[in-house]
């Protein structure tokens, strides 16, 4: 209902404005044929219409549905309309204040009108969307000057020059000329803003306001034609028409409410200079020898030349800016392209570059080879010396790879310590030579600290028809692991047999994922005995996998697979709990005759798991096994470097659990390891045991090891004892514990009970 009342009120304002225009036209037309005795009545429509425009603008400026910028614009227009009212009243006083009616425009009136047009221009320039750059101001001022000169020339030529009587009577030629010219500037500004867009200001309102202002200026220029009718004025029509335009614009803005701002249009080419030149040329041709027109044309020509020179200067600057921007864009694109295809750490290509290179070569059916390089023991460097040293090593390796490969191939880093080399148009022999250069260069010390090496294993494959990039990587990966299996620091070519083996391994790895759920794992136990009589001292728990298709799978095969697919943690947990349950059962059934020690292997992945120690404690509590009977075996590689595994070992010992160092002598063993790793038992690898009976050097090593462990109060267990001679030599050297086939092969729990244990306790 409220909106309906507002709509009626606005429609009433428009209707009132239209009636005032009609009244002004009627008064003027009738007055041309009759001399009125009350000329003041003719000024009522202009005054009323100006006041109506001020009221309409002020009402819109107070609307809460409009944004702040739009409301400010309409407040400025309301103020301009108020000046308009003052100008009309002053104009009426000029016309009627003398002894006789006249069309004179005084200085005060001129000031009011100029203030009105100035406020309109100011309101437009204050709009948020108006770009007030230096170039905009220069163009605006030059266009305004062009409009002033051209508009003034036309008004003078067609409206003022030939009306000397009006000039003499009214003395208003200059004021009219000034007002019309400034009015044209205001109209030009309105048109510019209307076409460029003005944020949330309704563009239709600006169009209506522009049309009303232009018509008002045209009608205002009719004053000289009213010479001889001093009681009449062109303001009778000009002011109501301009006011009606403002009232209608205010109505449109009020109805539009809060509109989303339209996107600002690109700057249009200004046609003002060209229209002005064409119009002045036509005026010059028609005006004959008019000095004023010639002078105006000359001035206009200078202004247009300045406008064009400035435009050329701006265009040159813009072209320079565009050229600079394009150069920067190209540089940025090059940088982004480089970053997208190169490794930020090493500077060599990345996986994206490798894939792009391979895809192009495959698409062109080119002959090429792919080599996959993986650092040997890189994880040890990272864990022992930190990632900073690891990154430095990767950078050294990258430099040496580029130096060895040169322009004959593309080097890329896939991630971590894996690199690829793509070699095109190189024979197999040439590939071998390049990769030998790579290996030779890597063997040189990287000079990053003691024990840091940069050796690597390389797998090589040749592209075949129908291959994809993933096929090449898979085959190179298989060959690379074969190189590692053969000791590392070498290259190895892929062959079909390896592919079949890789597929078998992949299938086996897949089967391993569900082996625990299918109950395919079981435990065996190997006796640990006391020397020399062979009395049982404990057992070592051994994991076995009975595959439904392949039968028993060797631990040397499935343990690395479990470590690779991370199932080793879950499997290790099952082994630990199952072994503890078996030990608890033996303790319950056989009492003091049960195996005194039960050794369980723990992987490095298990030790690194958060909460591993708490998990061991939980299993001990749930199974009820005596913790003194539990011996956890860890490998040298698991605790060689500082980190979570070593911290777990220390925490286990702090909780009263015993730890053994297994297979001592197979890795990067050093006696100093026994000083840094807190262990209770040292299990001497069978390679030393067999050497003790084979040569003098082996015997010396075995003897020194037992002396060292005795000095550190560490128990020593000799592994892999297979003959009586080995057992005797070990006993003579001082060993009191041993295990091996001589004393018993791995057996089931039932077999252990029948072989080693007495009858159950009643």
TrEMBL record:
Entries under NCBIfam families matching the protein: GGDEF
Listed PROSITE patterns: EAL, GGDEF
Stretches assigned to the EAL domain: 505-760
Domain of life: Bacteria
Protein's UniProt name: Diguanylate cyclase (GGDEF)-like protein
Membrane-spanning intervals of the chain: 12-30, 36-56, 77-93, 105-125, 137-156, 176-198, 205-225, 231-250, 271-287
UniProt cross-references to SMART domains, sorted A to Z: EAL (SM00052), GGDEF (SM00267)
Keyword set, alphabetical order: Membrane, Transmembrane, Transmembrane helix
Domain GGDEF: 366-496
CDD domains in UniProt: EAL, GGDEF
Entry keyword Membrane: yes
